[in-house]
Write a structure and sequence with these properties.
alpha/beta, 4-stranded mixed sheet, 10 strands
Length: 246
């Protein structure tokens, strides 16, 4: 992918894995890693480091390339981000970026400080919109971690309950309460042109989520299909423009 970008045949954006890899390999001003080397975080990085090594020239080159990636791409007729298109967050990220979309070093470092504005921005853009589950409810994610906040279908203005809106493994859906979402919990997609995102590891036959939103991640890294959309200038997304292999 890096070679395709260098050749001008691909545009590449930063996702949560690239962001996490930056933090895992970068120390803060206090000498501590921006992303802790905990057992959970080490497991998340294990496959990447098994291929590239720790603190090797290839590892350092990869992390530096990750730093250069923009968090969104706006091509006029279509827009791309990793997890959640939100105009306010995108404006905030652009304010922390140079003319090429590269986030400043200060902004990147600040994004690992939980509660900071930069943290809120990059968490949203690269990991999606989350809602706190009511009444102490929880579920177990695909990594075996118990969670009390759930990612939601931010584009789906028809979902009315936590269970309908939740993006969870199907085996865990019954653990999500089937009670009403608070007003405004799902903002919808504000973009006037189609938006493409990844991140969510969907199952089933690929299809657009609505007229202007398509999730293209169907778990290619875990033996699912590699999905693409062949855009030809249309304003409304169509099933017949989706293609996949595997």
């Amino acid at each position: 992918m890096q070679g395709m970008q260098a050749a001008g045949s691909a545009a590449v954006i930063m996702g949560n894995h690239e962001l996490n890899a930056i933090g895992y390999a970068t120390r803060g001003g206090d000498g501590r890693w921006l992303r802790r080397h905990s057992r959970k975080n080490a497991a998340q990085h294990a496959a990447f480091l098994a291929q590239i090594g720790w603190d090797t020239p290839g590892h350092r080159e990869a992390v530096e390339w990750f730093r250069s990636l923009p968090v969104t791409v706006d091509l006029g007729g279509i827009r791309v981000c990793h997890a959640w298109w939100d105009d306010r967050l995108i404006a905030a990220a652009r304010a922390g970026s140079d003319a090429n979309g590269r986030l400043s070093e200060d902004y990147l470092r600040a994004s690992f400080g939980k509660g900071s504005a930069a943290y809120t921005t990059l968490e949203g853009l690269t990991k999606g919109l989350e809602a706190e589950l009511p009444d102490g409810a929880s579920f177990v994610d695909h990594g075996g971690v118990e969670r009390r906040e759930v990612r939601v279908r931010w584009w789906d203005e028809d979902a009315t309950t936590f269970r309908e809106a939740a993006i969870v493994p199907e085996a865990q859906r019954a653990r999500v309460p089937h009670i009403a979402l608070p007003p405004g919990a799902l903002p919808g997609n504000p973009s006037p042109v189609p938006v493409f995102v990844g991140h969510y590891w969907f199952n089933g036959t690929p299809a657009p989520q609505n007229a202007n939103t398509a999730v293209l991640d169907y778990g290619a890294a875990i033996k699912g299909p590699l999905v693409a959309y062949r855009w030809s200038g249309e304003d409304v997304l169509s099933n017949d423009r989706l293609v996949w292999v595997g």
